[in-house]
């Protein structure tokens, strides 16, 4: 398993009590596997991604990414693991307003200390792969919502991650554009051998995924919920 969460419990302080956001969650996603997590608002989906992304440490349980046990790593090693092995796509494309699509990607390689020339080549290939050939020179305000989301996805793949975590990639898009983003994620998952977890409210877009899980009150079960919020 490229991503392996075992018996994860996550709590947040909530006044003088604690709120259990994740309750004994198990999830394994292998290379080339596209998993979707659905469930109502507040059920713990983003919390699950934050734990898998090593951004939040769980109260208990184990997280393993690309063969590394996260709890055994210090903060610097954890940041390197995130940078080199995990691609993260947040709901809102948090692109930098002043950078072209190509530079949004190139800056990721720069942060990882990689060669600028190879980075420009890879950035161009990834923009082609997400259907943005000829748009590499555009800044975010010159792109549509769907195009911005595709830049966001290409950027997450810049440092060749093994794990791709995607939070509600289609919520700002109409149905057809959303479906195209999900198809794109499925294709990239297979072509790059990624272990992909996508959180989505949209049950209509689960056709392209290999496995569906649902989250309710912090508990994860396999299978689609009958109703997502
Ligand atoms: N930083 C935090 N501090 C305290 N409580 C939090 C924090 N983040 C999330 N929560 C709570 O944890 C629960 C799970 O939140 P989470 O964001 O994971 O839900 P979600 O399933 O992603 O919801 P949505 O579909 O609305 O994005 C909610 O009850 C939320 O209020
Ligand atoms: Mg969320």
Give an account of the 3D structure.
By secondary structure, the protein is of the alpha/beta class. It has one domain (about 5-225): 3-Layer(aba) Sandwich (Rossmann fold), CATH 3.40.50.300. The two termini are about 30 Å apart. Helix content is about 30%, strand content about 30%. It is built from six helices and ten strands; from the N terminus they run βββαββαβαααβαβββ. The chain binds adenosine-5'-triphosphate and magnesium ion. Magnesium ion binds near residues 45 and 46.
Unreliable runs: none
Strand order of the largest sheet: 6-7-8-3-9-10
CATH uppermost class: Alpha Beta
Q: pLDDT average, as an integer? A: 92
Name its key features.
alpha/beta; 6 helices; four-stranded antiparallel sheet; binds adenosine-5'-triphosphate; Rossmann fold; 229 residues; binds magnesium ion; six-stranded mixed sheet
């Amino acid at each position: 398993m490229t991503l392996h969460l075992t018996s994860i419990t996550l709590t947040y302080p909530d006044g003088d009590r604690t709120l259990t956001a994740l309750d004994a969650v198990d999830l394994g996603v292998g290379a080339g596997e596209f998993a979707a997590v659905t469930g109502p608002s507040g059920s713990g989906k983003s919390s699950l991604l934050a734990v898998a992304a090593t951004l939040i440490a769980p109260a208990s349980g184990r997280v393993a990414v690309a063969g590394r046990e996260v709890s055994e790593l210090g903060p610097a090693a954890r940041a390197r693991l995130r940078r080199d092995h995990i691609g993260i796509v947040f709901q809102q494309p948090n692109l930098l307003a002043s950078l072209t699509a190509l530079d949004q990607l190139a800056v990721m390689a720069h942060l990882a200390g990689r060669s600028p020339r190879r980075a420009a080549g890879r950035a161009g290939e990834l923009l082609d792969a997400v259907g943005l050939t000829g748009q590499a020179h555009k800044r975010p305000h010159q792109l549509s919502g769907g195009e911005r989301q595709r830049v966001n996805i290409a950027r997450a793949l810049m440092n060749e991650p093994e794990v791709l975590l995607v939070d509600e990639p289609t919520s700002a898009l109409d149905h057809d554009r959303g479906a195209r983003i999900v198809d794109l994620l499925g294709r990239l998952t297979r072509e790059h051998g990624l272990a992909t977890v996508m959180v989505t409210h949209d049950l209509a877009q689960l056709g392209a995924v290999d496995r569906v899980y649902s989250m309710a009150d912090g508990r994860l079960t396999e299978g689609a919920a009958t109703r997502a919020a």
